[in-house]
Predict the structure.
Amino acid sequence: MSRKRIEHLYAVTPEVSDSDWLYERAGAVLAGGARVIQYRSKSGDLRLRREQAHRLLELCRARAALLIVNDDVALAREMGADGVHLGRTDMSPATARAVLGDAALIGVSCYDSLALAQIAQEAGADYVAFGSFFRSSVKPDAVRAPVELLRAARAALDLPIVAIGGITAENGRALIEAGADALAVMSALFQVPDSLAAARAFAALFDARERSMRVACSP
């Protein structure tokens, strides 16, 4: 079975117990152009995580967007999510594939390492994520990845590349130009007064790239 491709604006949810707030913001982000939402929650409250994840899945289905679950392969399988995103200490892509099936999207965090990304590709990952490219309020101590890594990854890999970490509509353009297929964003989408306008600003970056590509390919 063919799998969908990760690209464009990739929204990552903040961890909040106010589910109504989360749904409202996620709906605005999707309306503004996000094509992927990653549900990221480290809460020990399984009931809350199930409730939030299922509601986010409904929002994504209504917008023909993808829902990826961070870390929790069992929850992704239970709810029928589009895939899972794995970190350094999570199970391998091959094990996640065995649990979720061939149609699932498996993403892997590779931080600042092209070698990790190549290993992930060989293990069957559907996309890799690099970062943090800029200082992140979510993970202030995260390893910093250079923009040049995206260019090297673009030349070496045959799968979508996601950039993450402190990304805004102002600094995101350079990452797209360097080879990122998607920008993974949390704070600049959810921790702002107007999530709809913020998502539209990011979507405009990708629209500009697509226009440039069409011009470049025209006879």
Notes: Residues 8-217 form a domain with the TIM Barrel fold (CATH 3.20.20.70). The longest helix spans residues 195-217. The mean pLDDT is 94.
